[in-house]
Amino acid sequence: MTNIITRRISVPLLSNQSWSSMNYVAHKNVQFSVIGAASKIGSNLSLLLKQNQKVRHLKLYDEDTRINGVGIELTHVPGGPFITAYDSDKLGAAIQFSDIIVMVSRTPRKPGTTREQMLSSNTSVILQLCKALANNNPEAFLAISTNPINSIIPFASAMLHKYHCYNPYKMFGITHIDTARSRAFAGDALNVNPRDLEVPVIGGHSDKTIVPLFSNLTPSYYQVDACQADMLTRLVRKAGTEVLINKQGTESATLAMAWSIHEFVDGLINAICGSEVVLNCYTANPHYGTKFFSGPTNIGCYGIKQTCGNFKMSAYESYMLNNAISAINCDVAIGEEYVRYIEGPVKR
Ligand SMILES: NC(=O)c1ccc[n+]([C@@H]2O[C@H](COP(=O)([O-])OP(=O)(O)OC[C@H]3O[C@@H](n4cnc5c(N)ncnc54)[C@H](O)[C@@H]3O)[C@@H](O)[C@H]2O)c1
Ligand SMILES: O=C(O)C[C@H](O)C(=O)O
Q1: Domain assignment present for 131
Q2: pTM across the whole model
Q3: Domain count, the chain
Q4: What are the Lactate/malate dehydrogenase N-terminal domain coordinates in residue numbering (predicted)?
């Protein structure tokens, strides 16, 4: 694996102190595109968005023409946003004028594989989206849940940089499932309502790089001891694989994933509508010595206002973070390097 990293593509870095004093622009009734909307994640997410009062127009795209059936069915749910479905070669129209584009395609992993091994299966669909974004809507917020997040976001960022439309303030890798799981598991362990809990999760989105900070659990009168923290961390890191194995390889996490993507994008919608929000996501962030990093991120209507900075950590968490940093650096380099394999010189 090590030989791959011979030449790196540099993309501009975000400072974690940036954009702190931008004014709000009230901007309601968001237009939203879901790419990969015929899948279980995509259609469940679309159903949740159909009930989101802040969305005016929901555009559904999938390469699979069954997306038209999903679109028709959603029009039978009374009220909510106007629905349009797009298939095959209509990706450009599907993303044009949208404030937020969420990418949930393409290949999920099978038992026995790691997320890292998904890169070659999933770059082509990201490449298509980057081209369409450059040509049709470079100003949109772009949120991607396609695995492997740790490498796909650097790959997409380098691609958009090549197309002269990379905006690090508006590019998000969706890692919200890790906070959802951390809250759910901590709630069970403490026998409290998980919806009342917040757990920052930093690092990346893979077994070696998810670092939940149970020492920072809030409200702070709830505490987990060292033994519980170790057990919960292992559970969160293995949660995706556990779902995969118990669904007997037929699919990865889809329902909790649709729910958690909706909780995440609802926060992005609130940001676009003028609120300042803090959301867990994987973005450009050099603070920990990696180009990209996941953690609680402050977002406003123009995008990221401040990426996550320092946390007080237990010795156990610091140890895991150190290991995660070297793994993230490797994943980022592989993602950036993949641009050269897939594209060669820029063609538009
Ligand atoms: N970030 C996370 O926490 C997280 C969680 C779960 C799944 N995932 C990832 O999400 C991705 C999709 O997983 P899934 O279970 O929904 O897969 P799936 O196979 O159920 O669905 C994939 C969808 O992508 C569509 N698709 C394929 N090629 C396309 C193209 N060129 N353009 C548009 N759509 C296209 C397919 O038609 C299908 O509807 C995988 O990479 C998976 O690992 C990420
Ligand atoms: O584990 C997977 O492959 C899907 C996803 O990343 C998850 O965490 O459930």
Answers
A1: yes
A2: 0.92
A3: 2
A4: 32-173
